[in-house]
Design goal:
This protein is α+β, with helices and mostly antiparallel strands. The chain has helices at 4-29, 47-53, 155-158, 200-228; strands at residues 59-61, 64-66, 72-76, 97-99, 121-125, 137-142, 146-152, 169-173, 179-183, 187-188, 194-195. It has a seven-stranded mixed sheet with strand order 1-2-3-4-5-7-6, covered by helices on one side.
Length: 229
């Protein structure tokens, strides 16, 4: 007869395996909200579908092309009646190709693509300008029903202003036609002029003492009001 403890452990094995299977299925079914923002799936002959099918490791799910880690490499939101890409659009900042054609998009899209540094192909309605303008892309091609923005340029390399960032900062691309200045190690603050690490302890110390003082003042005020009543 096997010891009781061993038998109990063996009985738990199938349950543990089943639990792991359910969890893995749950993770597999979970999709970023942007992928299901629009009903339907990617059309077989769309540029996003063709891009995704060229690489066996990539899969089409809903409106997205995903790699094995679930990272969005392609997004097809064409013909979704969108006036703007929506609040979930930043979830696709890792995308290499995005299709937004056949949507009544309104306004300037330049600030919509903050952080989309990997984007190389963007398909838009014909009346919507490529974000950053023609200087932000290698090629802008107009077709009958859409336009294509191809080859995002590194705006830091193409700018004619060598002093676009302060002396202790460096230019970093932040999307089509966008850049940001990042302070060098050991510098921070306005125009990266302050040297040394940011004084976190002093900052939180002052913040904590101020919060405590205000709390004590409010508590005392409430107690006086309570006594007066």
């Amino acid at each position: 007869m096997a010891p009781c403890g061993l038998g109990s452990s063996l009985n738990l094995v199938p349950w543990a395996a089943a639990l792991l299977f359910v969890l893995s299925v749950g993770r597999a079914l979970a999709l970023p909200e942007i992928c299901i923002q629009c009903p339907g799936s990617v059309q077989n002959l769309s540029e996003v579908a063709l891009y995704c099918k060229r690489t066996p490791e990539l899969t089409l799910r809903a409106r997205c092309c995903l790699n094995g880690d679930g990272t969005i490499l392609g997004l097809d939101l064409q013909n979704c009646s969108l006036k703007d890409p929506g609040p979930n659009f930043p979830q696709a900042h890792t995308a290499i190709i995005i299709d937004l054609q056949a949507n009544p998009l309104q306004g300037d899209l330049v600030n919509t693509f903050h952080g989309f540094t990997q984007l190389q192909t963007l398909i838009l309605p014909q009346d919507v300008n490529c974000p950053g303008g023609i200087n932000a892309w290698d090629t802008v091609t107009f077709y009958i029903n859409n336009q294509s923005c191809e080859g995002q340029r590194n705006i830091c390399n193409s700018t004619e202003d060598p002093e676009i960032c302060p002396e202790n900062g460096s230019c970093v691309p932040d999307g089509p036609g966008l850049l940001e200045c990042v302070c060098a190690d050991g510098f921070h603050g306005y125009k990266c002029m302050r040297q040394g690490s940011f004084p976190l302890f002093m900052f939180f110390g002052i913040l904590g003492s101020t919060t405590l003082s205000i709390s004590i003042l409010l508590w005392g005020t409430q107690r006086r009001k309570a006594k007066a009543s």
